[in-house]
Amino acid sequence: KRDFEYINTVQEGSEDTHSQVRQMHLVAPLDKHFPLLYAILKEHIADDVDYKVLVFCTTAMVTRLVADLLGELNLNVREIHSRKPQSYRTRVSDEFRKSKGLILVTSDVSARGVDY
Q1: Which of 25, 45, 67, 80 would you label with 111, given CA atoms 20 to 30 Å apart?
Q2: pLDDT recorded at residue 24
Q3: For residue 42, what are the domain limits?
Q4: Nearest to 105, CA basis, from 22, 114, 94, 96
Q5: What is the CATH number of the domain that holds 43?
Q6: Which molecular-function annotation in GO is an example for this chain (predicted)?
Q7: pLDDT in tens, 35-81
Q8: Measuring CA to CA, how many Å separate 103 from each of 6, 43, 49, 87?
């Protein structure tokens, strides 16, 4: 959209993200996304037994695929996306909030105002 307006909702001088939340990103070709994600997760899990990881995906279908693949690789993973019933999403969200040693693969359905 060409006539967009940028609105900054973060006050000047304040942090963009919580200082205790470690965030990372990586730019890679599409065919490398899953192998790199798996390698990063394995490294993170090895460094911290009480890990809690959020993986954001672009669509519900991609979310389900990534969660299924990680589950097949014996990682402790849950998924939340718009194709799951609200009762399921609430249960998984509560489980993730209370748990350690868990990976939550999600679409943008978890990106807005969620406190884990």
Answers
A1: 45
A2: 74
A3: 30-110
A4: 96
A5: 3.40.50.300
A6: RNA binding
A7: 999 999 999 899 888 999 999 999 999 999 999 999 999 999 999 99
A8: 33, 13, 12, 19
